[in-house]
Amino acid sequence: MVGEEGAFVLGWDEVLTEEELSVTLKVLCMSEEEFKEYKEQDGWEDDSEEEENSTLSNEALSRLKTPCKKLLYDSVLLTLESYGTDLKAEQDLLNNKEAYEKLSRREQQALHVRYGQKRILHQLLELVK
Any idea where the Rubisco LSMT substrate-binding domain is (predicted)? Predict the structure, then answer.
């Protein structure tokens, strides 16, 4: 369901791998009975037109059902815990010109990437609180 890389891709305004995330949330939030019925339908593609045409924009994420929001929230917290530093540490390093300039070009680029990833994850936390 998650694809080859085992991760979902989030952007500033929407989920870029929305189909994978939608199906994953739908399945993980089902009861055991609902899951059995869903599997028996041989209908992994048999979603309603409304679901097929919906996008997982930030606004749509904030309107998810509570179990899905909790699942996303907890997943984001686990992802943030996997980083060696928090968002504030990254921000402090970016704001400290002397320390920033001591980093190699590659380390500077990695810092910007991590900082951007963490900002998106924190935004998602706010959306699904």
Answer: 4-121
pLDDT beneath 50: ranges in the chain = 1, 49-50, 52-53
Residues 52 and 100 sit within 8 Å (Cβ to Cβ): no
Number of domains in the chain: 1
Q: What is the CATH number of the domain that holds 26?
A: 3.90.1420.10
Half-sphere exposure of 79 (CA within 13 A, CB side): 20
pLDDT digits (tens, 9 = 90+) for 37-64: 888 886 555 555 445 445 688 888 888 9
Q: Which two tokens stand for residue 26?
A: 């739908």
C-alpha 111/C-alpha 83 separation (Å) is 12
Beta bridge partners of 57: 14
